[in-house]
């Protein structure tokens, strides 16, 4: 079970501990309370509810507001990171996105190709290549031959 409360008005309530205890019913007791219904809070609430937890999700603004970091029409989700712990998390995240889309019947994610570029001896780029290989992520490594980038060097 998941309940979500969102308000645009800030309200302050002062209830003594005794009054709160007297007015509390089993409907008001939650296993998990999450503050913030942005992408992280909403995903956490969704996963907790799937585990059978009674979840309360609190948001200070209206749902679908434009005041957070997750509004707008597009986002980038990439698995190409130099730090080795990120690609497995992105792979799991992709699986969860696919699952959520299948359960909702609504497609929100369109995958596109990621393009990382840098000098061949760049340590960060080399780490990205290693991490892609380690995590079985498809990649293609180009050298600086004009044949690899006809749009940049003119068509040949």
From TrEMBL:
InterPro entries: FAD-dep_OxRdtase (IPR006076), FAD/NAD-bd_sf (IPR036188), MTOX (IPR045170). Its cofactor is FAD. Keywords: FAD, Flavoprotein, Oxidoreductase. It holds the Pfam family DAO. Signal peptide: none annotated. Residues 31-109 form the FAD dependent oxidoreductase domain. It comes from the Eukaryota. SUPFAM superfamilies: FAD/NAD(P)-binding domain. One of its GO terms (molecular function) is flavin adenine dinucleotide binding. Belongs to the MSOX/MTOX family. This is FAD dependent oxidoreductase domain-containing protein. It comes from Dendrobium nobile.
